[in-house]
Design goal:
The structure holds 2 protein chains of 2 kinds.
Chain A lengths: L1 E8 L10 H19 L3 E6 L7 E6 L2 E6 L8 E9 L3 H8 L9 E6 L9
Antiparallel strand pairs in A: 1-5, 1-6, 2-5, 3-4
Chain B lengths: L2 H17 L1 H12 L2 H22 L5 H19 L4 H13 L13 H8 L6 H11 L5 H7 L4 H18 L11 H22 L7 H15 L4 H14 L6 E2 L2 E2 L12 H16 L5 H12 L6 H14 L3 H13 L3 H10 L8 H13 L3 H14 L3 H15 L1
Antiparallel strand pairs in B: 1-2
Helix pairs in contact in B: 1-3, 2-3, 2-4, 3-4, 4-5, 7-9, 7-10, 8-9, 10-11, 10-12, 11-12, 12-13, 12-14, 13-14, 14-15, 15-16, 16-17, 17-18, 18-19, 18-20, 19-20
Classes of the chains: A alpha+beta, B mainly alpha.
């Protein structure tokens, strides 16, 4: 099964760029990614730029509305993701626990939609 | 078919469905990986059994017969849905291979895997309890709803959502890896304990005795996962507590532990619980359930060893830092003779336990003993208003009236 690990970071409590704790967090990310690749479960993964760069869009009454800022103003923001292919939720949760941001924010684990469950 | 035979067949089927339903459901889910399909298939197989057994008599293994027929019913259903053709083909292969599986011993016991799935931390805690009672205890949705004071449709939705999540989120049907086992076992034992407590709080008025269900589940765990100190501790806790059941009520009124007639305690059950606790502690793998069992054991002494109980609650608080443990510790302190310290602790718990009925009952008792009559009467009124069981309300009402007099 494929799962997306959605990384909701909490910038206010995460280590600041340039500190030893920040370097340690980045090493943690490198180690987590390397393990997912080595285990053959990594499908994709990306980090996002900060929430101050976000633009949100919606269409109402046929009209495109564009807004500065993220979908919702919260303390934790979507900061990146991995997509992994593992046998079950227990395995997905083990990889999620390797993500350093889980110590400061939250990692949400969601199965990807399977558009062809019969496998034909 | 003669009427007597029809009754015999119905009785035999009822007995199998009562005693072996959990095993059959577990075996079906392990093949089908689908809770809903497994339940529906077993239900259909039971209906077929009534007709078929009535015609040709009981099969040599009713359990094996039900399993085989339920699997066929499930495959028929899967073939009906185009999306699942591959799964149906795989399963048909299975049933063919195991057509000789006729002795009940031959049905592999998958209930341990099933209970770990039902109590998976990815499910909401209340759903874990409901799903465990439904699949392993075989309670109906209505029985579970009544036990937890929910409307039946609400409970039905809760169960459907939980089953759907297990399948959609890929919650595995397996015993957890060794490194996850202590946490996951604690999750399972917590569910068993919640079921027991629900039965204990509501009392024997329910259509199903939840205390007995919890003991059944704990015994099953002890059998299937032997040598686990916490499983033994949990079973010991339930047995020691349940041994006092006949002494807990007198004339429909709750009797405090220290006033109970010990001749009414179930000596055999108590001895079994104490023996299990000793075995568990000899494994040198302490845990919260063993501590709770040790507390129950101390309460069974005459008089209860309150200083030791207070010390055990301090140990338990390290595992479960909750205000409810602090409340119990305060009660033990008060009973051990440290009333002012106990009242100071109770005052500090007013906010987190404002909606917890036993908190107000404890405040009423100890404020009363400390001579703070007005505060005690207010606490009695709240505790009586919040009491779930009529027996508790009756007990508290009599204490309040005595204080008022």
């Amino acid at each position: 099964m494929q799962y997306m690990l959605l990384i909701y970071g909490a910038p206010a409590v995460e280590p600041q760029y340039g500190t030893p704790a920040f370097a340690e967090m980045m090493e943690g990310y490198a180690a987590a990614s390397a393990k997912m690749v080595a285990d053959g479960v990594m499908r994709s993964g990306e980090g996002l730029q900060g929430v101050e760069t976000a633009t949100s869009l919606r269409i109402r009454g046929g009209k495109v509305e564009t807004m500065d800022g993220p979908f919702a103003e919260t303390k934790e923001h979507l900061g990146g993701y991995y997509v992994i292919d593992v046998p079950d939720l227990d395995a997905a949760l083990k990889y999620a626990a390797l993500i350093p941001s889980a110590k400061y924010g939250t990692v949400e684990v969601r199965p990807l939609m399977d558009y062809n469950p019969a496998g034909n | 078919m003669a009427a007597s035979e029809a009754i015999a067949v119905t009785k035999a089927l009822e007995a199998v469905m009562r005693n072996d339903r959990g095993r059959l459901i577990a075996a079906l889910i392990s093949r089908l990986r689908d809770f809903q399909l497994a339940e529906e298939a077993l239900q259909e197989a039971a209906i077929s059994a009534l007709a078929h057994w009535g015609r040709v008599g009981l099969p040599s293994s009713p359990q094996g017969w039900l399993l085989k027929v339920a699997l066929r019913k499930a495959i028929d259903r899967l073939r009906g849905g185009a999306r699942e053709t591959r799964k149906a083909a795989e399963l048909a292969h299975f049933v063919g291979d195991e057509a000789d599986e006729s002795e009940p011993e031959m049905i592999p016991d998958q209930r341990l895997r099933l209970i770990f799935t039902c109590c998976h931390p990815a499910l909401d805690p209340k759903s874990r309890v409901a799903l465990t009672l439904r699949t392993l205890g075989g309670l109906t949705t209505g029985e579970i709803a009544r036990a937890f004071l929910d409307a039946e449709p609400t409970m039905g939705q809760r169960l459907s959502r939980a089953k759907a999540k297990i399948s959609a989120a890929g919650i595995p049907f397996k015993v957890p890896d060794p490194e996850d086992l202590p946490d996951r076992l604690n999750s399972v034992l917590t569910v068993v304990y919640l079921i027991f407590n629900a039965g204990y709080t509501v009392g024997p008025s329910l259509d199903r005795d939840l205390c007995a269900e919890a003991i059944f589940l704990a015994r099953m765990l002890a059998l299937l996962q032997p040598g686990e100190a916490e499983v033994e501790g949990c079973l010991a806790l339930l047995l020691i507590t349940h041994a006092r059941r006949d002494a807990r009520l007198r004339d429909d009124e709750t009797v405090a532990l220290t006033d109970q007639d010990r001749a009414l305690w179930d000596r055999q059950m108590l001895a079994e619980g104490l023996g299990l606790l000793e075995t568990a502690m000899s494994r040198r793998a302490p845990g919260p359930f063993q501590i709770k069992a040790a507390i129950a054991a101390c309460q069974s002494q005459s008089p209860p060893d309150w200083p030791q109980i207070a010390a055990l609650y301090t140990g338990l608080y390290r595992h479960e830092p909750t205000p409810i443990i602090q409340l119990n510790q305060a009660v033990a302190l008060a009973e051990a003779g440290h009333l002012p310290a106990a009242i100071a602790s109770l005052v500090g718990l007013a906010e987190p336990l404002a909606d917890y009925q036993p908190y107000h009952a404890a405040c009423a008792e100890y404020l009363g003993r400390a001579g703070q009559t007005d505060a005690a009467l207010t606490a009695y009124d709240r505790a009586i208003g919040m009491a779930v069981s009529p027996a508790d309300a009756a007990f508290l009402t009599r204490r309040r009236d005595r204080l008022r007099a």
